[in-house]
Amino acid sequence: MTERIRLTGVSKQYPGKKDAASAPALDNIDLSIQAGEIYGLIGRSGAGKSTLLRMINGLEAPTRGEVHVDGVDVQKLSQAELRTLRHSVGMVFQQFSLWNSRTVFGNIATPLKIAGWKEADIARRVGDLLDFVGLGGKAFARPRQLSGGQKQRVGIARAIASRPSILLSDEATSALDPQTTTEIVDLLRSVNREFGITIVVVTHEMDVISQLADRVSILSDGHIVESGDIHQILARPAHPVTAGLVGSYTRTSLTETERSALRERFHGRRISIVVDDALVDGPVLSRLAREHAVDFSIIQGGVARVKDQPYGQLSLALYGDDPAIDRFVSELASQTEVISW
Q: Quick check: 199 and 159 in contact, CB under 8 A?
């Protein structure tokens, strides 16, 4: 695949109070995003996600390091060249940022007028986009007449109007209810699939990332603490920050407080196992339990799917003779990750 975006050794330091240096917003970030993929940046508030996103279109400048878009060093561009770059990088915002004085048609048409499109071409393009985002009958409505989801559809149509190669989404679903969030996620997937646009998604919502992203980086205090395929990250989070985000979303990972409570209630041997294809495609647990004369109870966990691959974690209490349980756990560990607690 062709690399579309690269950040190398990027740090961002904002001035602190009384000229003292504050903690860096970003610290030594390395990141590569491929053409045509949907890449997620997730972390809690203040992690540095939006700062990183704004560096891609030159709205923020790194204190150190380099940002390349399609092989071009963004920091070496003139103001005129930056404006050209921004025509190829659309952006969708949390609060929609529509012009209330303009119609839906006018909001979508504005970047095309700025880019010098002819009126007839603008009319065709806006009409096509309104149909694409499901707002074919809303061309002459004002933003105040629209729901939040409809406003975000207009924002997406405006962001892709001039046919950008990259779309930046900054918390685009944070102001929406769960059903509307799912609809906007589906629309963003359609944008990626239909137009081949590379999408970079900033969010603090793990459910958005799990539905949308191909790959993801987790940010914490200005650092990338973990990166990888979305299924890998959800199924086997390696960093405590990632485990916390995944656990709070799926409710499958256990905190130490939860484990202590479960130890009081379940007195058998306790294990947690990572769910993968082998465990859902066949009766692995029940077969091993029969073979080794071990009984078990599922005491916590769940299974979901991302891009048709299962992920999750199950916690079990095991009952039986110690040697039998040892054999059960040993054979299970040969097929998936097992954590005894």
A: no
Place of tokens 């209490």: 317
Residue 275 identity (one-letter amino acid): V
| The pairing of beta strand 3-12 with beta strand 26-34 | antiparallel
- CA distances 86 to 54, 56, 163, Å, are 11, 9, 11
Token pair listed for 148: 């939040």
pTM of the model: 0.82
Domains of the chain: 3-241 (3.40.50.300), 251-340 (3.30.70.260)
- Among the listed residues 213, 219, 217, 283, the one whose alpha carbon sits nearest the alpha carbon of residue 37: 213
List, edge to edge, every strand of the sheet that includes 3-12: 26-34, 3-12, 64-69, 72-73
pLDDT tens digits, one per residue of 72-125: 999 999 999 998 888 899 999 988 889 999 999 999 999 999 989 999 999 999
Among 66, 52, 49, residue whose Cα is nearest residue 7: 66
Residue 303 DSSP SS3: strand
Do the beta carbons of residue 43 and residue 26 sit within 8 Å?
A: no
